[in-house]
């Protein structure tokens, strides 16, 4: 699409009509927020998890939507962009904590306590996210090719089981000592609860994911067009 002049004759670019950018922005925001939430250890009785438990599975739902509608190439772009945005956020938090506080500022210790672990958490989160999401997207696209686009529910769950397993093991292995999880039983609890929970969320959200994917397919003019 070519640019068009404004009434003053100045040229501006006109982006192509697509919903990919909105999904990309949502993926970046969810990953950054879930990384901040993950710095808090959360316990529901004997069940151990972290504060990002209700946000992070949604990143995989968005990843499924992008993979199904736009394919692996754009899904990979979204994953890498989210990866970079979360890394930049962690670096920004580190700089923020390192800046000298004003004499009247009394919350430096609280700020460092809350945001200080984020770069460490992000290291595990990003490595797990990058591995898990790429596996999730690759498996989903390959299954779509093998099934001729049929059995969406199977593709969604199959890709989730693979991607979330890699993601959870990598992230929990790095985050556990940071959160104070030191025994093997606590670690196993942390991994199993995280994995089962994330997979269960995607399963529960299937009745919502289905119509959302269909909505995007109907409104993307290029969907199904051979290139």
TrEMBL record:
Membrane topology summary: Multi-pass membrane protein
Keywords (alphabetical) are:
Cell membrane, Membrane, Transmembrane, Transmembrane helix, Transport
Regions crossing the membrane: 51-71, 78-97, 117-141, 161-183, 195-216
Q: Name one Pfam family in it.
A: Vut_1
Statement: the UniProt record of this protein carries the keyword Chloroplast: no
The places in or outside the cell where this protein is found are: Cell membrane
Top-level taxonomic group: Bacteria
UniProt KW Membrane keyword:
yes
Purpose of the protein: Involved in the import of queuosine (Q) precursors, required for Q precursor salvage.
The family assignment reads: Belongs to the vitamin uptake transporter (VUT/ECF) (TC 2.A.88) family. Q precursor transporter subfamily.
Query: What is this protein identified as?
Result: Probable queuosine precursor transporter
- Please tell me the species this chain comes from: Rothia endophytica
Its ancestry begins with: Bacteria, Bacillati, Actinomycetota, Actinomycetes, Micrococcales
């Amino acid at each position: 699409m070519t640019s068009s002049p404004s009434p003053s004759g100045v040229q501006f670019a006109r982006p192509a009509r697509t919903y990919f950018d909105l999904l990309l922005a949502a993926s970046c925001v969810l990953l950054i927020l879930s990384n901040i939430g993950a710095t808090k250890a959360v316990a529901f009785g004997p069940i151990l998890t972290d504060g990002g438990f209700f946000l992070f599975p949604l990143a995989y739902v968005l990843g499924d939507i992008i993979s199904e509608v736009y394919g692996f190439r754009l899904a990979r772009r979204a994953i890498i962009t989210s990866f970079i945005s979360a890394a930049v956020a962690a670096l920004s938090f580190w700089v923020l904590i390192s800046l000298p506080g004003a004499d009247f500022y009394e919350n430096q210790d609280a700020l460092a306590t809350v945001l200080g672990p984020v770069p460490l958490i992000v290291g595990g989160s990003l490595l797990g996210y990058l591995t898990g999401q790429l596996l999730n997207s690759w498996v989903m696209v390959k299954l779509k090719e093998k099934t001729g686009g049929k059995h969406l529910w199977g593709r969604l769950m199959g890709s989730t089981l693979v991607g979330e397993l890699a993601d959870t093991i990598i992230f929990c292995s790095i985050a556990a000592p940071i959160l104070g999880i030191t025994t093997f039983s606590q670690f196993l609890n942390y991994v199993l609860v995280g994995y089962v929970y994330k997979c269960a969320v995607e399963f529960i959200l299937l009745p919502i994911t289905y119509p959302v994917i269909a909505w995007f397919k109907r409104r993307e003019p290029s969907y199904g067009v051979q290139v």
